[in-house]
Amino acid sequence: MHILALILLLLFGGCGYKPSSEYSNEVLGDRVYASVVTFIEEPENSILVEDALKEALQTRLNVSFVNRRDIADSEIELSLKSLRFRPLQTDESGYVILYRAEIVLGARHKYFSNGVARTSYYTLNGFYEFPIRPSGSISLALKFDAIKFSALKAVDNLIPKLALKGNSNINR
Predict the structure, then answer these.
(1) Which domain holds residue 37?
(2) Domain containing residue 96: CATH number
(3) What global pTM score does this model have?
(4) Angle made by CA atoms 110, 112, 118, in degrees to the nearest 5
(5) Is residue 20 one of the residues assigned to a domain?
(6) How many structural domains does the chain have?
(7) 49 or 75, which is more confident
(8) Contact between 101 and 145 (Cβ < 8 Å)
(9) 138 part of a folded domain
């Protein structure tokens, strides 16, 4: 057992492997200011998307959030580009029984690299599939869950993009 642990340690430590969170932290810093532009069409969903952003960054990258821009190491702002619910499957009577929530978010990431302010823009896509009862409509609770989970998937797509940006900053 000790030999296996030693081999794994040498394999991952010896080859210079670093987890993507280390590269992401190069462009995020320790303190992040996160904001979501309020969606005019559905302002209550702005809170869900902001919570998804914070949950994804906190659980994946272990960053701290601050309430003021002036003390943040970096800033991430999300805005809704599109949100739609698409029927995927119907039953034998023609009633929709499976929907897919598709969300597209725009992300603006502002950070400092070698004392110079830099801004990057990303487009993030996420989706979430969920069943409903035949001849039923999408309830408010199902809609909120679908938006939250699709936004969480979209924000998950931001993390490797930040890691790639952090890696390119290190190799300059």
Answers:
(1) 31-167
(2) 3.30.160.150
(3) 0.77
(4) 50
(5) no
(6) 1
(7) 75
(8) no
(9) yes
Question: Closest Cα partner for 158 from 70, 18, 34?
Answer: 34
Half-sphere exposure of 81 (CA within 13 A, CB side): 16
- Give the mean pLDDT of the chain: 81
For the residues 70-96, what does the mean pLDDT come to? 90
> Can you give 26-80 as a three-state secondary structure string?
HHHCCEEEEEECCCCCCCHHHHHHHHHHHHHHHHHHCCEECCCHHHCCEEEEEEE
**Long-range residue pairs from 112-116, CB within 8 A, at least 24 positions apart, any chain:** 112/73, 112/74, 113/27, 113/169
Average pLDDT over residues 120-124: 95
CA dihedral 65, 157, 150, 32 (to 10 degrees): 10
